[in-house]
Every structure is written in structure tokens, then in C-alpha cells.
Amino acid sequence: MGKRIKEEEILAKLEPKANDNLLTLKGVGKHYGNIIALRGVDMVVDPGKVTCVLGDNGAGKSTLIKIIAGLHQHDEGEFTLHGSTIKLKSPRVALDAGIAAVYQDLAVVPLMPIWRNFFLGSELTTGVGPFKKLDVAKMKEVTKQELADMGIDLRDVEQPIGQLSGGERQCVAIARAVYFGAKVLILDEPTAALGVKQSGVVLRYILQARDRGLGVIFITHNPHHAFPVGDSFLLLKRGRAIGYYAKKDITVEELTAQMAGGAELAELAHELEQIGGHKEELAEAEAGAANTAPASS
Amino acid sequence: MATTTTTAPAAGSKDERVAEKSLLAKLLGRPEIGALVGAIALFTFFAIVAPVFLAPSSMATVLYGASTIGIMAVGVSLLMIGGEFDLSTGVAVISSALSASLLSWYFGMNVWVGIIFALGVSLLIGFINGWILIRTQLPSFIVTLASFLMLTGLNLGLTRAIGGSVSSPSISQMDGFASAKAIFASSVTIGGIDVKVTVFIWLAMVVIASWVLMRTKIGNWIFAVGGDEKAARAVGVPVVRTKIGLFMAVGFCGWVLGMHNLFAFDTVQSGEGIGNEFLYIIAAVIGGCLLTGGYGSAIGGAIGAFIFGMANKGIVYAEWNPDWFKFFLGLMLLLATVVNIIVKKRAESSK
Ligand SMILES: Nc1ncnc2c1ncn2[C@@H]1O[C@H](COP(=O)(O)OP(=O)(O)O)[C@@H](O)[C@H]1O
Ligand SMILES: [Mg+2]
User: Fold this and answer.
1) How far is the CA of A61 from the centre of ligand 2 (A)?
2) What is the value of pTM for the model shown?
3) Which of A121, A219, A266, B113 has its CA 20 to 30 A from that of A290?
4) How far apart are the first and last CA of chain A?
5) How many C-beta atoms lie closer than 10 Å to residue B146's C-beta?
6) Which of A153, A163, A200 sits opposite B351 (nearest CB)?
7) Consecutive 10-residue averages of pLDDT for chain A (297 residues)
8) Which residue of A has its CA nearest to B346?
């Protein structure tokens, strides 16, 4: 099959070279028809580091990660993996290249047992030919072990995954990506639908994945989730990068202010002023507006 | 640098590993448990009101009735677990039987040629159903309703065009008829009781289907495409191949039953089969397969078919008016679906 050979060629090119970043984007852009969804975005992902992508709805976050995960292809700029320029044709190619994406809503099949979900699409079998059967014992054992290594203590891997909490489900999907050899892990708003406590659990697993040497790309619109776990922060707004910071160069307040945007905050301050009172909030909003540096990327 | 504010690992889970689930708890978690309870209740009921029901020969009759539904219910159950259903099965059985008989008769060939041809026709019907479903993204209700109507018309039209009648010409004098009858429509005598061969074919098919479902990759994929198609695709499950394969498996079951229908007699009525598709679906649903997919078992479908067989024949043994049969069937279906919904809610609910 021609397709197979092409994939192998791509993978051969991807032998890690020393001193290269794991993944870089340079001036990457994407348009859907005449809608420009993304323009001139730079980003670097390194092993054992968490890169956060922040932005409001419609900022282009999903477009960005779909390019990295092979669901879409970029129209401009350069995408390199292990130092080689690349355009990923499909999620399968991305997966084979070690890029795994965990989507909020696409993670698991609720009615299936945890272990079946864990190995879904990559089942372990024993035997040959038409009599190949699932290696159930091995799969259960690995699932239990892998989840335990991520710090998830499950009583029973046989229970339907739908019985787990939303956070735990995300974690199983993360553990699965780690087990199947992902080098880059993309998480699209994993905390968006979760409560505070559950979000905390997911954030912990992001750090676990990082500590195992994966390069993590964490998409969120919540700076309070991004800041504690991130090493660098890419801020998107209307398809453009409005800032790209290392952790040491920014505080969570500045991040929040940047996200909201100076103009909106100034307006908010003005409105609060008109209403009167609320001294504290006013000061905060004004400080936020002041902190917002002009777009400099 | 990145020393962060992670929550402290929740040390010491609530209670040490929960004790191994008891057998009862395991049983209660199975999809076919509702059907099993229903089957036992119905069996007991008829055993009391009609003691002749318990006679071995009566049991053989009940099992035969169950097998003619159950053979199809095997395929239909798998398909429903895979998230689709098929309204064309009833007439597709007749299409298969007609293909075999008309081809052999028209060309005067050995009936085994017709049998192989019919297998091809049945698999093709399944393939086309699946392929159109994938291509058009229409619900299987519409796609298979269309093929139901088309096959109904083809059965009647082609039979008249080729054989000149509403029923296919008799093939009992043709080469291969005796051996085909032995395979598809004979009886096996066990302890003086004649048991129809379809009963054994049915049970073998249930065993194979259960094994595929629970112990192979394909089984895993069937649950996945029925449970959440998008999630399955995202992790690399071949959704298209799985769905089309399921429709073809239904086609295969239709071929088996079609051959039985043909060789149990020697002719087929071209207008038959209409309405039977619901009996197969009912057996699968009573057996615990969710209409929405992703949950169920092959054994459940078999129990559903057995319930059908018991109710069907039990009413006769109890010397009631068979008019009541459909009422019972409807009631069973309603009860089964309610139980299914409860089961699904329990399985899906977050803790
Ligand atoms: N498939 C698509 N076709 C056309 N426009 C799209 C498509 N996907 C996204 N867009 C547009 O691109 C912009 C960025 O969207 P997206 O990347 O989904 O943002 P985010 O994930 O940050 O909310 C939006 O204006 C959106 O409407
Ligand atoms: Mg998005």
C-alpha cells in the first residue's frame, strides 16, 4: 500500500536529532475559505515542558491544535518536528509520529469497561490468524498498572468508564496517550467542563505527563489553570499571537489582564466608575488595563 | 522553576480494594439479566398452567420455534450493539431463499450452486445496506426501510418474471436437494426426540458470536462504534469496515435461515417474510440490546428468541386463543425496554 510507505518515510525523517526542539511552529497560518483563522503564530514545544495556549472563544486555539494533530494542514509558515519540516496528513500519521490529542468530548466510549477503552483501537492479542483473541488478562493488568503510575487508584478496571468522573475520564485518556508512546500530548480545554476539584485532578496529570518527559500543549481559556502548570504561554486573539511568554516573565495577574485585553478592561473600569462604589474592583481593573502591554510578538 | 501548586496526592483511598464482586453482583451487571429472569418466570408459568409444556417433545418444538427467530437475532443483536438496525431482514431471508431456488431451477443446476449464489446475494444485500448508510450518513431506519421495500418488490416481481407464479417452482427433484435438506432442514434424534438441526446451528452461532464479541478486536470495535462512533474513530477504530461488516453478518444469518426455509419445504412464497424483521429486533431488545447501541450480548438475543418460542408455543399448549400471543409479546417488549433504560442509566451515571 502506497499510503503505508509514505507514512514510513515521514517517520524515518523524524529520527530525533540532538539540539533540536521537539516541535516548533514558525509563522504558521490557516484560513478556511476567506476566513483567516490563524496568522503568523510562533510556538515551541520541548520535552518535559508544558506550553499553554490561551485565548477567548474563536481565538484560533482549536485551529492551532488541529494543525498539530493532523486534522487540518497549515497554509503558511513552517511546522517542524525533531528538526524536520513536516505537514501531517491525518490524525493517524500524527499518532504514528508521536503526537496524541485528547479531546474533551472525544475521549472515551462511556458504556465500555475502562480496560477496553484504554486499549481501544490498539488491542493486544494472542494467537495467530483468524483465531487471534484478545489478551484480556494482560490488558487489564497494564491498564491498572499504567493508571496506578499516573496516580489513579482504580478499584475495578472492569467498570464502565462512564461511571468515572469527568476528570478521571480525561486522565484515562491521558494515560492511554502516554502508554502508547506519545511524545507530544495535546489537551484541548480538558478543564472547561469540570469543577474546581476535578480541574485540580486533571492539572496534576498534566504534570505527571510532563514529568515523564512528554511535551504537553495545554489549551485553556482559564489563566488560573494555565499558570500553575505552564512553562510558557502563548496568547491568541482573533487568530493572532498577542504574546508569548516564559513563566518567569509574567504573573498570573498579567496573564489574566492580557487575556481580557486592555481595551475591554478600560471599558469595564469606566462602567464601574459610573456605577460608583466598588473601589477595590475598580483599582484591579485599572491595574489590569495598565499591565496590558501593546501587542508585541 | 515550575514548582507548582498541585493538589496533594489523595493518599489512601476510601477503603482498601473492594472485595471481589460476588457472583450475584456480576450477574446483575450483565445485559441479559432482565431477559433471563423473564425467561425463567415464563417457563415456570407455562410449566404450571400447561404441564405438557415440560414434555421433551414440546421442548423440542419450543426450541425449534426459538431457533427460527434466534438465528437472525444473532446477527441483529450484533448490529444493534454496533448502533444500527435493519428493517430489511425479514424479506432478505426470503430473497436469499428465492435466489437459491430460482437460479438452480432456471438453469437446471445442482441446488448447491444456488445455495452459494444465495450466500453471495445475502452478503451483497448487507454490504449495500452498510455502504449506503456510510455514504449518505442517513439513519439506518431510513436506509433499511428503503431496502425492505425494494426487496419486497424484487421478491414478488422477479419470482413472477422467472417462475411465472407467486411462489418459486419446486426444486425437490433437483440434484443436491437431499444433501442440502440434510444440512439445513433435517432432524437429529436425541433420546427418541426429534430435534430440528436449526436448533444446533442456532446454538453454534450464538457461541461463535459471543466469542467474537467478548474476546476479539472486532468485538471491541462493535461495542465502540455503537457506543460512541466519534470517539472510536478518534482512537483509530475502522468504523466503516466494522459497520459494513455487521450488516454483512446479518446478511449471513439471513442466508442460513433462508436456506432452512427453502429446504424445509421445496418452494418459497415470494410475499413472505414481511413483519418478521420486528420479531428479530424484539428478540434482541428483550435480550438486553440497547436500541441506541453500545450495549448488549449475543446470549441476550438468544434468550429473547427463547422467550419468543416459549410464549408462541406455550399459549398453544395452554390451549388459549393464540390471539393473545401478540399482546404478551408487546408486554414483554415494554418491560424489557424499561429494564434496559434503567440498566443503561446505571452504567452511565457518574459517581
Ligand atoms: N471548519 C471551519 N470552517 C470555517 N471557519 C472555521 C472553521 N473552524 C474554525 N473556524 C473559524 O476560525 C476561527 C477560530 O476558531 P477556533 O480555532 O475554533 O477557535 P477557538 O478554539 O479558540 O475557540 C473562528 O472565527 C471560527 O469561526
Ligand atoms: Mg476551541
Assistant:
1) 6
2) 0.80
3) A219
4) 44
5) 15
6) A163
7) 47 53 90 89 92 89 89 90 84 83 76 92 85 90 87 82 82 85 88 79 86 91 89 90 86 82 60 64 56 42
8) A163
